[in-house]
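pasting input
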Amino acid sequence: MDAALLPLAPLVVVAGTTVVLILLDLLPPRTSKVHLGVVALVGIVATLVSALFLWGRAGRAFSGVVVLDNFALFFDVVICYAVALVLLLSLDYLRRNGMERGEYYILVLFATLGMLLMAHAADLIVIFLALELMSLSLYVLAGFFQARLTAAESAMKYFLLGAFATGFFVYGIALIYGAAGTTALDRVGAALGSATRDPLLLIGLGLLLVGFGFKISSVPFHMWAPDVYEGAPTSVAALIATGSKAAGFAGLLRVLLSTFRGAQPDWTALLWVLAVLTMTVGNVVAIAQSNLKRMLAYSSIAHVGYMLVGVVAGGPLGAGGVLFYLLVYSFATAGAFGVILLLERGRQEAVNQDDYGGLAARHPVLALTLALFLLSLIGMPPTAGFAGKFYLFGAAVRSGYIWLAVIAVLNSAVAAYYYLRVIVYMYMRDQEGVPTEPAPSFAGRLALGIALWGVFQLGLMPAPVLDLAQAAVAPLLR
Amino acid sequence: MSDYVPVLIYAAFIVAFAVMSLGVAALLRPSRSYDAKLQNYECGAEPIGQAWVQFPVGFYLVALVFLLFDLLAVFLFPWALVLRGLGLAAFWAMALFLAILSLGWLYAYREGILEWK
């Protein structure tokens, strides 16, 4: 490989795999597309390996607009894990729904390329490019089960609201360019530090926050999430909830911590409010949901609130805590979506909590798996969720945001109610109606196994990964 | 911020001019309305039916394929102008770009986009 392209190795691998997939999709057999999924999976694993191999290196490419540092590499790892789980889950989910098409895997890889590029972006224009590459692929994927009305609603809503948020984002870039005279992140930061403070820069930052807030679905830009998750294929919902959220945080953290560090007092006050709103609205509304996919959508909104607590706390503890929590959250959320996906019947029936009545008696292992993922989302001790929340809230206390930590802990207690309710249904209720049967999918079970391993590995031995997360944010805080 | 003051003044003048000329004209002119005044002036066909008509979705796909070739041309012309100075590396970079774009065209072809139904 060309030395100049070495910093881009993870991106090049994903792009190369996508090109191979397009070629493969044109060749026979035209009916079965499982081999495309396998090739995509191999590509993602190769990307993961290349990211691990590059750890510790730093570099830039394309006149400095694409950057390689530990921060980007950590996000590469998070995103690759999430996408690998989604691909494993998709392998025969598509066939069961009669939608086995090559485009699916191609689009998933295009979205992945956008997510990775977002983590590596060092220029506002590249962030925009990455955001669009990721979003446009996800808009199509959200409506992939075209025959269903909810899929059309999901894709349409996601597209319209997403395009609207993108408009805010571009306007923000334009204002920042107007004030700083550049779109390169480090030079914008220098302009912020040197001159007398230009209000245009802050207005621009506010507009960027709207765009990022939409991608990570923080309140008040969260309205799309439940409808999109409900109508999208469950595997795509898992991808939107984990990978695209991680990418959104990658862009947000790089812009806030590195470029706009000079304006920290301004944006911490704003994010403090956003964090409280996001946690509270997410958790309170989740209580009222009986559809598990909607419940997980609101739960994912609440978790964004917890991660914003870490952003407010700042420093290596807070920001490192966010990175660690993203990994923890991705394993547990992808796992929970995975169980729902395996239990789904036909065209996404049997996703209500009533359908989970008596599941533990019929399928004890699967019920236990879902219970463990939900316990991790609550933050119960042996699971990773506890370690993640411990570091996030601990960082908030240490930075002096006592009340924020108190509100976050109270919110976690509220959240326990709706997660435990599902567990109560599985273990203490009797089954009603047609019993749900899990699909006999080896790949799906493998994905659940990997996610479960992640939940316990990070829960029992969090320190090594947390050290890596803190090392990853170090270049931003310098 | 002060750099933008001339822009603001200019914008204010534009708005004031438009409001004033239209306003004065509305006050002074006699108002006599008849059908011929509402018709297209000198050029353009008389409108028939609604503006909200449905297009075959095939046009959209053809437009996408057109975009592919358009993009090709946009990048090929400046590349061709400076190729002699840049040497082989630029040639191979463009070859890779062309290969990826052609793959897109091949994909469109195999998916039957050019077969007009």
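fyi Chain A touches chain B through eight residues (CB under 8 Å).
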